[in-house]
Write a structure and sequence with these properties.
Order of helices and strands: HHH
Oligomer: single chain
Number of helices: 3
Low-confidence stretches: 99-107
Shape: elongated
Number of domains: 1
Mean pLDDT: 78
Number of strands: 0
Structural class: mainly alpha
Helix content: 55-70%
Strand content: under 5%
Radius of gyration: 18 Å
Largest sheet: none
Length: 107
Amino acid sequence: MSLDRTNAPTNTKLQRSDRSFITKAAESGREEVELGRLAHGKASSDAVKQFGERMVDDHGRANKDLMDLAANKGVRLDDQTPKKDPVLEKLSKLCRGRTSTARTSRR
């Protein structure tokens, strides 16, 4: 599903709960893209790598649509990398540790 990108910003005032939802959805979407990148870059299984790539593509597209909707509704979103997520950090460290362990055990 794609949003109509030709609409000019509306004068419709959003409720706080709607703004909050859009903001949280955008942050979650960026996290999904980061998790997809991690899976694609670090997984040993081709199926997991493909799934990670699909997450990046699908969530990236959905994030773009959400950014367009937010702009149309006058909601300003940060399109940068998500805030540090402890779970993502831990997964990333586990992947680095496993790669290092595998490398050293081959010697």
